[in-house]
Write a structure and sequence with these properties.
By secondary structure, this protein is an alpha/beta fold. It folds into 2 domains: 2-254, Spore Coat Polysaccharide Biosynthesis Protein SpsA, Chain A (Alpha-Beta Complex), CATH 3.90.550; 259-328. The protein is 43% helix and 19% strand. α10 (259-272) packs antiparallel against α11 (277-300). The model is unreliable at 1-43 (pLDDT under 50).
Length: 329
């Protein structure tokens, strides 16, 4: 049972390849077994980080996510599960199997509100997020702690990731490529920082605000734009998280035209007044491109009014793009 749930250890570190055998909650070790195994393998060194796990009706996979936090080589200060109004057995699962976790409940208001509640109640100097359908590899927090120590001034660190879709490992496309440093313009096409990979200083939220609760999706894309326009980020090149896709309750499956929400985020950035001329020009160009794609899609679906609104928005920002482009030249 332990062999199925925990990775085989090579040279004292987990081998990610051994995560890809199928395992379920029925196969998983109990919380007591997991903690005992962790204590045998790893020293209990603490990292002043609060881990925030938002969840909505994911009793079947939530345990896997929590277990992956409990087996970290660098122990977090606290683990907070924020239940976004689940109607399944989430409450019973957490209270029965993970009494060491802080358990918060709110009415169903979405993942942004759940994360923001966790941020507001967390005690750690650093905050980490884990989506309830993802999991961490055991050395994630330790690797990010080291990276932050080596990246003076960085207040956000993210990592490479492994993708599993419908039970099979898949390779990320080039457009999903990740990196560190000043990455604002790389963030414009789509989200290139996974929330489950992030460790972030809590003061960042005081500086730039939290997750935008008005956005049904792409709330992470919006936040990373606000941060990366102003600060460099640290990056761990080795994969430290496993992202699972292909299930029906993913936000990307529930909302058509995800670029609708990215356009709103891009417009917010252009209106913020914080962008240097090159970043403003790139942002305007991206907004125009996405508006034209949305307008074309609306036209094909016979939604003439929606198409016209996106075409008008593209024309509005065309002059801004031209002006900013001239300033860059």
């Amino acid at each position: 049972m332990i062999g199925k749930y925990f990775p085989i250890m090579l040279s004292g570190r987990p081998d990610p390849a051994f995560y890809f055998s199928t395992h379920s909650r029925a196969d998983a070790p109990t919380t007591v077994e997991s903690r005992q195994t962790q204590q045998m393998r790893y020293p209990a060194v603490k990292f002043p980080v609060s881990v925030i796990i938002p969840s909505y009706n994911r009793e079947a996979v939530l345990g896997r996510a929590i277990e992956s936090v409990l087996r970290q080589t660098l122990v977090p200060e606290e683990v907070i599960v924020v239940d976004d109004g689940s109607s399944d057995g989430t409450a019973a699962l957490v209270r029965r199997d993970f009494p060491q976790c802080r358990y918060l409940v709110q009415q169903n208001r979405g993942v942004s509100a759940a994360r923001n509640l966790g941020i507001a109640t967390a005690t750690g100097t650093w905050l980490a997020f884990l989506d309830s359908d993802d999991e961490w590899l055991p050395g994630k927090l330790e690797a990010q702690h080291q990276a932050l120590q080596q990246s003076a001034g960085c207040r956000l660190c993210h990592t490479e990731e492994i993708w599993i879709r419908n039970g099979k490992r898949v390779n990320a496309m080039r457009k999903h490529g990740k990196s560190g440093g000043w990455i604002y313009q790389r963030c414009l096409p789509l989200c290139v920082i996974s929330p489950s990979s992030v460790v972030i200083h809590r003061d960042v939220f005081h500086s730039y605000g939290g997750f935008d609760e008005s956005l049904p999706a792409c709330e992470d894309y919006d936040l990373w734009l606000r941060i990366c326009a102003r600060e460099p980020v640290a990056f761990v090149e080795q994969a430290q998280i496993i992202k699972y896709g292909g299930h029906d309750d993913q936000l990307s499956r529930r909302h058509w035209g995800m670029d609708r929400f990215r356009v709103k985020a891009l417009e917010k950035m252009l209106q913020s007044g914080v962008l240097a001329a090159p970043d403003a020009a790139a942002t305007a160009d991206m907004l125009i491109e996405k508006c034209r794609i949305l307008a074309l899609g609306a036209t094909k679906r016979g939604a003439a009014e929606r198409a016209a609104s996106y075409e008008a928005l593209a024309r509005r920002y065309q002059s801004i793009a031209s002006a900013q482009g001239a300033a860059v030249d």
